[in-house]
Amino acid sequence: MALVKLEYQAKPFCRKWKIAVTTRKIVLIGLSGNTREIFEAVEAEFEISAILSDDPAHAPDFEGVPVVPLSQAHDFPDAQFVFLIGSQTSYRQRAALIARLAIPQDRYARIIHPRATVSRFAQLGTGTVLHCGVTLTSNAVLGAHVMVLPHSVIHHDVRIGDHSLIGSNVTIAGAVEIGESCYIASACSIRNGVRIGNGALIGMGANVLNDVAPGAVMVGNPAREIPRRS
């Protein structure tokens, strides 16, 4: 997992980060709510060459950007990529799909919304996406292709594994460990020091007070395990 500390940019009253862009072209993988919410931030930093999607319901373009099949990923040799596919139903498929695309990892961009705030002591993996209003504090470590949706707060010393998705308005207290390919739904709270195993799903609004087993589905306040739907 490639981690990076990004170029520091000081601004009044807050500290933010910016990406040192090496190429201005980018291809978005997936056309979903995630794409729509981060589109303007990406557009401000890159020329968006295309959006990759196999959904036949999608129009041939989005905001003037052509929508083409995933099979055309290698038709853009001079572009970077960002992976935006992921929901409560597809989160466990993200790693396999990224592997199937066979795009070199160094061609995935890190996307940080200009209204996200990231500690200079945090570390971000390849392909990290931070949406508007995200706060990432000291010594947090995010793995490759982690996506954090708007207005979530990730506190000190948190570790989030590759390909995991964090919903909007989530609060993750200090020293929490979240495994790979997890889905943390909107408005969850996770107590400090909790460990969440690979592939777990935390339902909307859950209050997680204890460790979560790999693959478990947790709901409620306090969070309790329920059977996973087939």
UniProtKB/TrEMBL annotation:
Signal peptide: none
SUPFAM superfamilies reported for this sequence: Trimeric LpxA-like enzymes (SSF51161)
Site (Increases basicity of active site His): 157
Alphabetized InterPro entries for the sequence: AcTrfase_PglD-like, Hexapep, Trans_hexapeptide_repeat, Trimer_LpxA-like_sf
Binding site for substrate: 86
Active site residues according to the UniProt entry: 156
Membership in a protein family: Belongs to the transferase hexapeptide repeat family.
Identification of the protein by name: PglD N-terminal domain-containing protein
Annotated source species: Thioclava indica
